[in-house]
Structure formats: structure tokens, C-alpha cells
């Protein structure tokens, strides 16, 4: 075939798929100088049976392009994997081999592992060979500063990888083997050094220098600009990078490793996936590198492409709907790779194109820019559809696509990240996106003011949080507006500036304007603070002012004065023109968006999209936590993850009517630390769609992710769209129960943005309010609503409080086994009353407990008048002497842990005593008891006199019928929705959750029947009785049974309790 374009391959493949069977198709040019292997797979959306999809809908093509004259090691490896031997090969086995070989994630993992080995090798070699070299903006010693070494290694490899991509396009002297050929030529002579003699001149003198159309010493090599090839160390610095680091024939060298892969200059999409190294795969590999090295600190996780596409499509089409009046249902089809715009009018196509030009998008934790690239690609797909309606057809590789991308990168996309290396990779990723569609080489744009390094969450000045006052966002004061417009004009000029010297001039001019804008902003804030202080001074001086009120006003004045002092200090630091700008502030650096008078007086981004870091602030420095508390008082919590603060930050950066789309852990929806942000969202935004993945492993780690899309502004009533975990599970696992294998999840997620659409359902907006969010099947929410409407909280059924077990502060000291207990009593019978039978969480199961043969040493605190000991009134040393004489065996046992016991917080008057406890006698009365954690309920009725570990809860009651209801299927689904789910996936049965359970008081006959259940042998009968009590119909019963199928078959409960003791 002469035409091997994607559209042609897709049309031919469609014809084959009209026949039964599975296929591997091979296409070739007439001269057989190019082969394309295509493995097609049909993907259907969740509602595929209800609708008739277009012929190409959901057809996913895995492709491998090969030049037979020069196959790479990667090409040969894939061919070996799909080779079929023997005279009668098994078709099923051959199909499975092909599916495995064309698995993009597997190829990505293989490249990542090899690239990481290469990175480590290059970094170690640079450090060893250059002990005194100083590079980077701060001229730090490579061997003494790991960050500078890492950054230089990353930049070197990033530059070479970029050259491999443009080499594949033929932009390097028309030679697709330009780099290995350059190595051979440059090292022909003795003493030659490839880096010094070839790469340095290529990087810094050819690729970074405008030559007016003249060829370079390396032949026809383009001028690339874009700061990618700006020198980061002085001309006088001589770096020694040995030839062995680059030699294409040396195993493990840079050119050897990279030369083994097929670089492809096309962007894979959800329906077209190259089994080669494309820009998207490279972005994933770079992000994985950062994850492996920094995930524990930064909490970064690479978002699967199809999820990025879903988030981009949701926000973009909602934005377009707002600005064009076209419904989202009509806009969504335009985001597909193979969309047909016949449903649009010409006027609507024009409206869409105009609206696309106005959108402003920010990723506040941009990482490697996967979100921005995904959004950019969605914009391009919509633009292609709209232009097609106007008769302009921009085919794959069309110059128009590159022009549109450059336009959107320049005007629409912004990103911030606290890691400088992430910003470098993000810029590289956007540059590659431009290269993909460019037919001829042209200088790369400068992205310095589009993607910026800084703390985009907290916003700091010289490392200290920027002082906030009530007028946190400055209005349209003339001076400030003028400076914002000037900065915007300079940013526009800088974006396309090709001359290095002029770029330096522009940078200085932009920094000067930023200083002036910052000063004007701070002056405005200081003026506001000064007015408030003057008013307070008058109120304080008022002789009629009450002393108590005067004291409050004085404290307020002191706080305002401190803020004003710190603002003045920050102003001085920024105004020092000899120092680089020590801050990042959205209002200053993205002034054209935050303060633009052309945005209807409504400054801010149209869309904030991202995957903010999942890091607990409990591990952060106290100063940073204090700064977060000051900056975000409405959502502050000592236990919250950092992503919670990003929600409020994102809302702050949006214009009115703008949208936020994040993928974060779902924990903020239900647990206490999310209460603040839930309230902020309820008061300031409308939740539009939530996708709760729950326990489904979207990432390699268990993060319980959810996608949330919000609209800032007018809070609307009505309904919210959701996709529940249960719906996703049914689709992914095709109705099968149990744990979903990871490879099944990965395969299903590759088409998520298409397959998930049919799972969307509507629930009342009240379920995503200030209280815990309930992202559940609408039918299940009806069942739970029925329970709550008909029942009363357990705390109203039983007057006794739910209590917990004994908190010792050091279980290892106080818990002993039976053999030790017997030894103590044998030698000292009077110690028996202080050694009590003891039950741990792991000893509890449903309906019963096992004999654990463990005991607790219990000496109540001498502070308690009820439990007076012979040493209670003595001083410490005298008391210890009496204790050791009266209970020598116990004293000896506890003395083994003496230092820890003294230091513990939970102790009595003396180190061998327990903390105060007012309810020891409650352990001797009949009670319902249960462990704190479990995959299913573990409640039993205890009539024995014994103590519990602190993670066992109990309720003194003679209403045994409550026990049976607690162990029923209906209550299990309630636990799963309303109770906290910990990181291991287990339910947390804390007392305050259990006391809110809705109970119906049964009739005496029903109570008698309920009390007759003592094990799971009659579980069906028990469940039927509970369903009857709550008035469930047949459909609701079937739903509960489906949701709880297999819940009691495993050892999850016992495994969960291992963490408690």
C-alpha cells in the first residue's frame, strides 16, 4: 500500500473485523521499505448493548512500525515474541502472544527499567569524572550537590532524547542515524572527546544559534531555540564525559540504549497506540523516575492517559457549553479521534473555535505536564472537528495542527511545580508535542513564563509564606492594571524570541515589571492594613471601651501590625535588583490571567486541572504546617493530606464560573479531616461529576482515587453525576466477584474515557454536601435513606456509652502470656488480683471469641481514690520500693521496659501504673464487643469478666437482638458507605460511628427471633428478618445481596486485627 496513514489502516482493519476471529495485520509499502504490524482490539462503552456504535467506535489499534533495512533491538524483540513456530500453531496461543507483545504498559515498564539503569550509570560517571565542576544557576559543585548532579544528568539525557525524536523526522541533516554517525566521525582521531568536540558545539553553538539559513559544520541542522540548549555552565568550565558513556557499541551507553528503541514522532491516542517510544510514553517514564526517587516525599503518581482524557474532555466540553450554548452531549462526540461534525452548524463551529482561543488552563502541580498535554490534545481534536465542518481538513501531521498547538501553548496552558526538574521535563514534553505535527523545523517557543518552578500552593517570598490580608486579590487599580498589561505584552514577545541576547534583555525587563507589580500589590495591602490599624487605635483609645473588648482589639492590632511588618520585609527583599526574584505568585507571574480586564472583570483561570500530591502534612516541618494553617484556615487540619489544600487553592485561582478537575484520594469525602474542604465546596461551588474508584488500583499504590469536577460560583441544587466504585467493578470484572487482577484493571482503564460514559448516573446533590459524601449506586442510596428514615441512632436505643479497651501506652510491657501469669501467682498469690484475663482484637470473630490465654498487668493509677494501693501516698522512690517488695515478679517484668514506661504519655501517678479509667467494672457486665478493623463485621456478646486491648470497643446492654442486626448484610453495606475505610481497605468500626447506626426497635417476637442467632449457619434467615424490619422490596434485597456476596468467606477480619495489637 502506498498510503500507510492511520486513517487508511483503520479503514482496512474495519473490513477485516467484520469477519469472525482475531487478527494480526501486516501492511507494507510497495518497496517494502516500511512495515506496519497492527493488532486490533474492539472496545465498547458500558452502554454498547443499548446503543449502536459507529463502525470505528472503540476500535483500538496497537501498531509497530519497522524499517526492514534498519530494525532496532526493540523491533526484533517484539517480532520474536509474536513469532509462531510449528506446522499447526494454536490460534488462541498466537493471539495471546500478540496481545502480550502489543501491551504498551509492558513496553513502557521495560524501557523505564533500562532507562533508570542508564540514568544511574550516567550520573555516577559524571560525578566520578568531574569532582570539581560547578554548574547550574547557583554554580554548585557537582559532587557535593546531589540536586545539581541529578539536574545536569536529566538535562543531558533529555537533550539527547529530544534529538533522537527529531533525528527520526529527518531534521538532523536528513540522517536518521545522525547521532551514531556523528559519534563515529568525532572519535576517529586519537584524543578526541565526543562530548567536548561534538555535543557541546552541537548543543550550544548550532542548535541554540540563529544562522540565517546557513548550514552548520554538522550539515543541515535546525536552530531550535526554546532554552533547551542554553548553556548552563561557563565557557571556561571543562567537563570530562568519557567516550565510553556515548559509544553506540558499548553495552549500556547512552547511544547504545537509546539506539535500541524505535522512536516514533506521532502522539499515541486512546485508539492508536504505537508499541514504540513515543512522546507520551517518554512522559510516563520521566514521571516514574520522579515517583521512584521522590514518591515518599512528594506523593506524585502518574495519571493513566485515558483518565487524563476523561478529565480534559469533561472540563473542556463544559467550558465550551457555557460559552457557546451548545449542550455538552453534543460537544462530547467532538473530542473523539474519529469524530463526525455533521451535527454542528457553521455558526456553531465558529463559536467553538472562538471559545477555544479564550480558554485559560492551569495545572498547579504540573509534574511532567501529562495533564496539560492531554488537555492540549483534547483541544486539537475539537478544533479539527470544528474546522472540518468549515471545510478545512487537518490530517495527521498537517502544518495546521502544529500551528494550533503553538497557539494554544502560548495563550492557554500554564503550569507550576515545586520541583525544578519536573518543569524541565514538562517543557520538553510540550516541545515534543509541537515537533510531532511540524513538517519543517522551526525554532521552539520559550516556555519560561508558561511553566514555572515554585511553590504554587503556599506562594512564598524568599522562602516565607506571602502575607495575606483581607484584600487578597487586588482589584482593577489603574497602576496595577497597567503593569499587568505590560507583563502580558512582554510574555507574548518572549514566547517567540529567537535571539539569546534579546531573551536575556526581555527576562530582565519582565523581572523589573514583576518587581514593580509586586511592590504595587504589597503597597495596596499595606495601605489596607494601615487603615485597619488606625481604626483599631481609635477603638482602643475610646474611654468608654470595655476592658475585655479593649484586650481583644489590642490582640487584633498586634496581629495586623506583625503582618504589616512582614509585608514590608518581603517588599524590601523583592526590591533588591541585585538578587533574582525570590518568589512565585500567581497574581504576578500569571498576571495576564489573574488580572485581565478583558475577562469581564473576572480574573482567574477557566480550568484548574491536576493530580496534586498525596502527602500527609504530619511529616512536614512545623513552619510549613503553620504557614498552611495561616493560608488556608477554612480547611486546615493537623491530619489532612496536602491535596486537601490544593482543592481550596484551585478554587481561589478560578474565575467565577470556572471549573476544577482533580484526581485525588477519596478520603476527604468521608473522614473528619475533609470536613473543612467539604464545607468550602458546599458554600462556594457546585459539584458536577464525581468518579469514585475506591479500592480499584488506578495507581500501583493503594490511593483510593476519585475524580472530582467542580464549578466555582453559584451553588446549584438538583443532581450530581457520579460513577460509583461498584458500577466500575461490575464493568471491569464483567460481573465476577472478588479481587480484580491488576492487569485486568490496567486493560480496562486504557479505554476509560469511552467505556465509563454509560456508567454515569444521577444522585441528589444533598449526598455531596458538608456531611460525608456518598458516591454510591443510586439504588443503594435509596436503601440507606430508607434505613435512616425508619431507624433511630443506637445512642437513643441504648443509654450506655460505647467504651473502648484499656490503653496501656506500652502493650509489650503489660501483656503477658498464661505461663508468665501462672509463674507470678505461684510465687506471689497476692498479685493475682492485678493480673486480669485479656482479649486482643485478633481474638474476636463474628458471634464469638477464642481463648487467647493472654493477661494484662493492671495497677490503676494512685490518683484514683477508688483503687488505693499501699504506696499511693508515698514519694516516687519510696513508692517504688514498696511496689517492688509487694510484687517482685511483676516489678522485674515491668523493669525490663522501665525507660519506655517512664517516657510514655499514658501512665498513672507512677511509671508502673495505668492511666485513669473510670469504667473497670463495665468489663464485668454483659456487653456487645467488637474489634476496630475488619473487612466484615465482627460483633459478639461477651458475658465473661475480662479486659480488652484499646482497639476493642464494647457496649453494655442486655438487648442481644442488637448483635444480630450488627452482623447482618444490610448493616454491612451501611458500614461500607458511612464508616471510614483505612489504607489497607478495611472498615474502621470506631465507637462514634457505631452509635449513629439507625436501628428499628423490633417487636418482642422479632427480638426473640433475632436473639436466637448465634452463628452464620442461619445467616439467610437473619438477613431476611432484617430486610423485613426495614421494609426492603425484592429489588433492594437483590442489590444488598449482590453487594455483600462473598463478604464472609475470607480471613480479612483476622488479618485486619493484626495491626491493632
What this model shows, in words?
- Keywords: DNA-binding, Methyltransferase, Restriction system, S-adenosyl-L-methionine, Transferase.
- It comes from Deinococcus radiophilus.
- This is site-specific DNA-methyltransferase (adenine-specific).
- It catalyses: a 2'-deoxyadenosine in DNA + S-adenosyl-L-methionine = an N(6)-methyl-2'-deoxyadenosine in DNA + S-adenosyl-L-homocysteine + H(+).
- This protein is 45% helix and 12% strand.
- With 1061 residues, it is an alpha/beta fold.
- Among the domains are: 6-102, no CATH class; 106-263; 464-583; 921-1057, no CATH class.
- The chain has a nine-stranded mixed β-sheet with strand order 9-8-7-12-13-15-14-16-17.
- Helix 5 (146-168) runs parallel beside helix 15 and helix 31 (876-886) packs across helix 32.
- The longest helix has 42 residues, at 500-541.
List its traits.
1061 residues, alpha/beta, four-stranded mixed beta sheet, 40 helices
What's the short story on this structure?
The chain is α/β, with parallel strands linked by helices and 1061 residues long.
- The dominant shape is globular
- Counted by DSSP, the helix tally is 40
How many β-strands, per DSSP?
Answer: 29
The assigned structural class equals alpha/beta
Strand % is: 5-15%
Fraction of residues in helix: 40-55%
Indicate the low-confidence ranges by residue numbers.
Answer: 45-56, 295-299, 467-476, 1050-1060
How does the major sheet shape up?
A: 9 strands, mixed
Strand arrangement across the biggest beta sheet? 9-8-7-12-13-15-14-16-17
Average pLDDT taken over every residue:
86
Keywords: DNA-binding, Methyltransferase, Restriction system, S-adenosyl-L-methionine, Transferase
Region (Disordered): 43-70
EC number: 2.1.1.72
Protein name: site-specific DNA-methyltransferase (adenine-specific)
